[in-house]
Design goal:
Distance between the termini: 43 Å
Number of helices: 9
Shape: globular
Largest sheet: none
CATH topology: Hypothetical protein af1432
Number of domains: 1
CATH class: Mainly Alpha
CATH superfamily: Hypothetical protein af1432
Length: 155
C-alpha cells in the first residue's frame, strides 16, 4: 500500500468542483470529526481507521456512493478490494457507526463549502448526505451538526 499515492487520490471526480479535495484532506477531516463525535476521546483504532478508510481508492478511484447504491455487486467487489488492501483495524460496532457518520458529515461539509462558493451541482450530493445522516442512527451531536449545515445553506 502506497500511503502517499492513496492520499493523493482526487475525490468527487464525477462532478465539477471549485476547490479540489484529495483523500488525504478528507481523511484528516474525518479523523477530526471522529475526535469531535467521541467527545474528544477516540480510540487509537478509530483514528487509524479514519486515516486509512479510503486509501484503497488508489486502486479503484473514488467511486460515488450512488453507484454503489445502484449496483450492490459493485459495492461487494469494492469491499473485497478494501479488505485486501487496508490494514485490519478492529472497531466496535459503535466506532464503525461513528466512522461512517464522520465520513458522511465531511462529505456534507465539503458540499456545503462548494455550494457557498456558487457550485449548485453539489446540492444533490449535500442533500443525499444529509438524508443518510438523518436516517442512520444519528447521535445528538450528528443531528446538531446537520441542523447547523442546513441552517448555513438556507442563508
Amino acid at each position: 500500500m502506497d500511503y502517499r499515492a492513496g492520499n493523493a487520490v482526487k475525490r468527487f471526480h464525477t462532478v465539477n468542483l471549485l476547490v479540489e479535495e484529495t483523500v488525504g484532506h478528507h481523511s484528516a477531516n474525518v479523523a477530526m470529526l471522529c475526535n469531535l463525535l467521541t467527545n474528544y476521546q477516540p480510540s487509537a483504532n478509530l483514528l487509524k481507521a479514519a486515516l486509512y478508510h479510503d486509501l484503497a481508492e488508489q486502486f479503484t478511484g473514488d467511486v460515488p456512493a450512488t453507484a454503489k447504491w445502484m449496483y450492490p455487486g459493485l459495492k461487494k467487489v469494492l469491499a473485497i478490494i478494501e479488505q485486501d488492501q487496508l490494514p485490519d483495524i478492529v472497531l466496535t460496532e459503535d466506532e464503525e457507526r461513528i466512522l461512517k457518520q464522520a465520513d458522511m458529515l465531511d462529505l456534507c461539509y465539503k458540499a456545503a463549502e462548494e455550494m457557498a462558493m456558487g457550485n449548485k451541482g453539489m446540492r444533490r450530493i449535500f442533500l443525499n448526505g444529509i438524508h443518510w445522516l438523518q436516517t442512520n442512527q444519528p447521535s445528538l451531536e450528528v443531528l446538531n451538526r446537520v441542523k447547523e449545515l442546513l441552517d448555513e445553506c438556507e442563508q
